[in-house]
Write a structure and sequence with these properties.
Keywords: Cell inner membrane, Cell membrane, Membrane, Protein transport, Translocation, Transmembrane, Transmembrane helix, Transport
Strand order of the largest sheet: 3-4-2-5
CATH class of the largest domain: Mainly Alpha
Organism: freshwater metagenome
Largest sheet: 4 strands, antiparallel
CATH topology of the largest domain: Multidrug efflux transporter AcrB transmembrane fold
Helix content: 55-70%
Order of helices and strands: HHEHEHEEHEHHEHHHHHHH
Distance between the termini: 88 Å
Subcellular location: Cell membrane
CATH superfamily of the largest domain: Multidrug efflux transporter AcrB transmembrane domain
GO cellular component, one term: plasma membrane
Structural class: alpha+beta
Membrane topology: Multi-pass membrane protein
Number of domains: 2
Shape: elongated
Oligomer: single chain
Number of helices: 14
Strand content: 5-15%
């Protein structure tokens, strides 16, 4: 395999990731700011498990529709502006789901009976579920606690396995993933359910794995180039190009099953639980693959480049053919060395006659007079 794809497959690309790191930082900064504004003015579309309330589900057929369901809520003095009415599934198995604030047992039964009459089905085919707001707050607290414990354990492991600067970069990348994923849910109004929280914790594990793969290669190349004067920016660039194909393959292999869950499970078969879980996975997998390349490793290069060993080499990067040479030989030529080598080459091309002329160009020293 030759050409661009062949170089990518063999880990021989020469992309200057460190030189383009500000592109990723600016893009992430814009998304984070949009997330903060969205959370401030719009908030999250929390499901019934977090806000508390009551939900009815009934077959969507005969005279039952979204308009008739809204009218049933109004007849039972239920606030329709805060209620959520959505259709689930497709074809003959299509159902309608109604979520509203918590109601008394009499109101729940009345709405259930009205829905069954409109759909012309038995009352038992209309399901009713109620969740208290205290249970939702308990789930939220446990999810945040689990997230903090996960961050702590991960940072300790990375600091023990590699070093603490890698741990900080990895944690910042995972925080970035959580913020961006939450921002997507807030901006697009997706409903946040317990399945969403579980998916978030799952994608953090994937993001960490992808970051560790890159960090492990950086750690190996740091030892490989330790005997030569190679900048840490070069080490990061070489490492990321070498594992780029592996990261892409890992992300693609993880995203394809999730896409099938969204298209087949949620779209064709109407499994809403799969849709909630798969949607969070899809957003998180894309964010995790992005952050391992454009957030975690560039941050590491900034932290490490300021160490005394690499500080004098900041800004010295091998590009294109020079990066290929660095990958093959394990050593690079700095700018000063390149200038010096050019001068030496120019001197080497001068002819011996020129050298003799340069020597004889000096005036001869006068001879001392000797006495006879």
């Amino acid at each position: 395999m030759s050409g661009r794809w062949g170089r990518l497959y063999n880990g021989e690309t020469t992309i200057d990731f460190v030189g383009r790191r500000w592109w990723g930082f600016i893009a992430s900064g814009i998304v984070v700011l949009a997330t903060l504004f969205s959370l401030l003015f719009q908030g999250l579309n929390l499901g019934i498990d977090f806000e508390g309330g009551v939900a009815w589900e009934a077959p969507l057929k005969n005279e039952l529709s979204i308009d008739s369901a809204t009218k049933i809520l109004e007849e039972n003095n239920i606030e329709t502006r805060s209620a959520k009415i959505q259709t689930l599934g497709g074809g003959s198995s299509q159902r309608i789901r109604i979520q509203a604030d918590d109601q008394s047992a009499e109101v729940r039964s009345a709405v259930q009976k009205s829905l069954s009459e409109k759909a012309k089905v038995d009352v038992a085919e209309v399901s009713v579920s109620s969740v208290s707001s205290s249970w939702g707050r308990s789930i939220t607290t446990k999810a945040i606690r689990a997230l903090l414990v996960f961050f702590l354990i991960v940072s300790l492991y990375i600091a023990w396995r590699f070093e603490w600067k890698m741990a900080i970069a990895a944690i910042l990348a995972m925080v970035h993933d959580v913020v961006v994923s939450v921002g997507v849910y807030s901006l697009l109004g997706f409903e946040v359910t317990p399945a969403t929280v579980i998916a978030f914790l799952t994608i953090l594990g994937f993001s960490l794995y992808d970051t560790i793969v890159v960090f492990d290669k950086v750690h190996d190349n740091t030892g490989r180039f330790g005997a030569s004067r190679v900048s840490y920016e070069d080490i990061v660039n070489v490492s990321m190009n070498q594992v780029l194909m592996r990261s892409l393959n890992t992300s693609l292999a993880a995203i394809l099953p999730v896409v099938s869950l969204l298209v087949l499970g949620a779209g064709v078969f109407g499994a809403v639980a799969l849709q909630e879980f798969a949607l969070a996975l899809f957003v998180g997998l894309l964010t995790g693959a992005y952050s391992s390349i454009f957030i975690a490793t560039p941050l590491l290069s900034i932290f490490k480049s300021r160490e005394p060993k690499f500080r004098s080499l900041i800004g010295q990067r091998s590009l294109k053919a020079d990066m290929t040479t660095l990958m093959q030989t394990g050593s690079s030529v700095s700018r000063k060395q390149s200038v010096r080598s050019g001068a030496d080459a120019a001197n080497a091309t001068s002819t011996p006659i020129d050298a003799v002329t340069a020597v004889l160009s000096h005036p001869p020293r006068p001879r001392k007079k000797t006495r006879r």
